[in-house]
Structures
1.
Amino acid sequence: MSEENTADMSNQAPAPVPRLGFVDNVKEAFRHISRSVKAQRGRIRSADYLSIFLVPVTCIALMAASFCASWSRLIVSLIALCSVLFYVLARIGIMRTLNERQAALIWHILMATFLMGITFAFVFLEILNSL
């Protein structure tokens, strides 16, 4: 195939994706994400390994902090917040490679995830306070 034909094919819009019901749409989205992650697994920058390692460590630290005294809980929570912020900021450059529609969609998903995290934290703290 010539370079001109290859360039033409890369500029074409992807095939339209049929609309599905809610449950089928969620299932297919997770399948697509799973295939994409598996395909890209070997393409992780060496600088990303630190942030990938921080995610489970942060989760374990937050679970342990929920059983600690107030000052240690606050310190661990602040460290966890910095770890998550580092994780997001280490990957925010990806947004530059997306078109405007993709970037806007990813931004909305990021904001929804942030709001879900805040809501989860309040629910979790309310459960802990009621015990």
Note: Residues 1-9 have pLDDT under 50 and may be disordered.
2.
Amino acid sequence: MSETILEIHFPNLRHNYQFLRKHLADETKLLAVVKAFGYGSDAIAVAKCLAETGVDYFGVAYVHEGIALRKAGIDKPILVLHPQEPNLKSLIEHKLEPGLYSHRIFDAFINAAKESNEKEYPIHVKFNTGLNRLGFEPKESKSLIARIAEESKCVQLKGVYSHLASSDDLKDDAFTKRQLSAFAVIVDRVIKTFPNTNFHVLNTSGVLNYPEAQYAMVRTGISLYGYGNATQVDAELKPVLTLKTIISQLHTLQKGDSLGYNRAFIATTTTKTATLPLGHADGIGRIYGNGNGFVWIHGKKAPILGNVCMDMIMVDVTHIECQEGDEVIVIGPSASAEALANNAGTISYELITGLSQRIKRRIVN
């Protein structure tokens, strides 16, 4: 290897899928979230692998993400979680399913569907049970049910869902149960008019912590990629992404020498450094500089020194036997993205979804 590579390990992806399936009833559908380039990987490659493995549904944030999957030949149902009004006709054209979350977007979709002469087009409706981000309020459920019934020639209610705020934090168990109770009330109202609706409220942590609320479908994201928001769960999962790079050059600093922009690192003793072809343009942000981040070289931790540059980082290899061209592991099975992110005060989601598309991807199958 002579450059920075992001490996996508399909055997680990399949393992994580099977781990989640074991926590579900046989009849429960699994929706795989592949938004944000498949959580920083390759959405098309990941979706194709998961489709072959048995995933029932896919979820994306925006319409253009769903269109990319359709153009790549993905024919399973795709839910667009956050559709925007200008893209609704394209959504319909590519047979994507909208998650409708407000009266504005609901009305706009009805108009778009009628203009396209659609009959019983499948829609999902999102309710806000406490995350306070997107969704109709629970008190609107009765009037919304009536409105959907009025438009039954045009649209068909295929799904009703909500999103949990703290399903990974059992200290917030009471809050999560209030959300689940609020959703159960909505379910009871909807099912009387639309008995064949797919209800879905559980995310990754919800699947593991609240299995009684599986309903017809669950939505999983981060756990498919190897991170479970809990140490005991992480032990059961296998990280899908391995980010590798190399040592471009070695330098030796003497006491008092500075390194990098703004002379952010000043050597207090003789220090050997390695420069790596990876920087904030690749998703390794400045928050990882000045000792907050680290990489692994020959199994040993090498802290990042000074400020992260756009295309390079410098690391301390004073106590590591290495040479130019040697392999460096940034994240992987033995180099947790969660640990790296947490050390810099952020989360694995932000780290992996921020990995730049300029990094070459390689499928390991």
Note: The chain has two domains: 10-225, 241-364.
3.
Amino acid sequence: MTIEKILMPKLGESVTEGTISTWLVQPGDKVSKYDAIAEVMTDKVNAEIPSSYTGVIKELTVAEGDTVEVGALICSIETEDAGEAPKQETDSVASGSAAPAESEKQTTGETAMKARYSPAVMRLAQEHDLDLSAINGSGKGGRITRKDVEAIIASGEKPQAQTKSQPETQTAAPAAAEQQAAPAPMREAAASGAAIPVTGVRKAIANNMVKAATEIPHAWMMVEVDVTELVKYRNKVKDAFKAKEGYSLTFFSFFVKAVAQALKEFPQLNSSWAGDKIIQHDEVNISIAVAKEQELFVPVIQSADDLSVKGIAKQITSLAGKARNGKLTAADMQGGTFTVNNTGSFGSVQSMGIINHPQAAILQVESIVKRPVIINDMFAARDMVNLCLSLDHRVLDGLVCGQFMARVKEILENISESTMPVY
């Protein structure tokens, strides 16, 4: 027998750590190579960690909720050396009572595995009103996978829960009682309110924000932009665009296009701090913030400067849809060089974003608000928006950022069908 180590894998560019949200195995469980053994969350993506070997889990060295660095040991597995006789057969001959005990242990383990649902499976089941207890899973120990649920949804048939046998009821009863009793210590520890554990995505976000806020010397600036002509142009073409393309033409698409164009002219903002050097990126890959319930993801629009407004709108729709449906991949999160955040969708008119480490800046696009503005010594109702830039003062200074913001303002205030065609 050989003891092998399984390490925390690197799940994306610039990802340096991950949080074990759920263990899918326990010591003593037999797994095959590529079986999922744990669910892990990072600030960029949620994923499953596959086993690198076939064997028996020996030890879990990281607890659920713990955050560890990429390359750190998370568990060990005992593998059979080539040519060695299977140990299970030898044990069966030596002790007649060992087989039933082992069988009982395996059955219990498989029952526990079947009851472990990933966040994606839970969400799909809730959205389509499916009873997970009525689904036979294809994963290890009967575990229900996302593909199992998607197959049932595609078939249009809703499985019905089967009546459980008495032994299963007896096994489930202690577990149910234990679940009911579990919140008691939490209530006792927080008599004046509810204590909410910081785990999963929220913990990953918290760790990344602390890292960005403590490592990056932030500076801020804001410009006010008159987007009256942009509003007129977009409102004029949005209905025809939706009818033709099948997805919406949002204001945000124009803002991302304007930023991508300005980044080509001011590549200093399209940079990252790398210790003893500054990396100025050739590609303009725009990260956008996408929220799903209490989770926040930052997928990337690759080569945004090469896309039309239509192409950017399509990417925004696609990435947002993936986030809502739990289908974002590590590839969707990689390569971002600058972040544009649509804070205006919440009604915000001024905010200061924390930079998406290791990028050098983030731009907040606030709400478009109709306000009285003086033009030629006369009041006029205009559509105005604030753009708020957070910058890494190790990489950037006020001069170049002021020039960049002035250029973005100029592009947005002069948008028309000729200057920024949708197609």
Note: Residues 83-105, 163-190 have pLDDT under 50 and may be disordered.
4.
Amino acid sequence: MSRKLLVVSLLGLITNTYSLGAAAWQAKEIQECPISKRNSVWLDCVPEDIPAKLPYKMQDGSVKVLETRGTVFCKQGICEYQYQRDSGLWDSTNEYAGQIQQAQKTPVVLLRGYYLGNAEDGRIVAYLKGTGPEAGGKAAPALQSVTSKSFNQASIDSCVDQWSNAFHKENGEDALIMADMLDEWETLCKAGKHP
């Protein structure tokens, strides 16, 4: 009997801990979706300060503590949640996650309770469900800082060449440069980082 009481007490403590985490983190109507720090091919719409799990009210009225991050793939502009099988392959959960203008396959880490869409300037953003264009609201405004910091493609290309030269100097002239390396270097160059 005391073991059951201990388990119930621990569950109560865990729920209270997640509730405190939820209270400390406030959902915004729009989340930006920058390039992921872990993988330059992915976008990551989840803020760094959010807890890994939060309590969510389910459709049946119950409350469950669930992962805050979900994996979404957008194919031909339609986005849906995916899960990874033990084999490493991805399968759809048949849960809609928004629409974007981009037609290529776009992998995104999305916050539970949000959907993907485009801002006025075409960038991909996450809208809190019940807000944004799919709920009859306005699209996120264009970023002012992007136009004021317009990147000169020639200087970015020059910077990528510097990264390429540094790579060959360290690994030999015959070392192969993969496409994802070029993408990563371009991202670094846009952030003002040089070798």
Note: Residues 2-24 form the longest helix (23 residues).
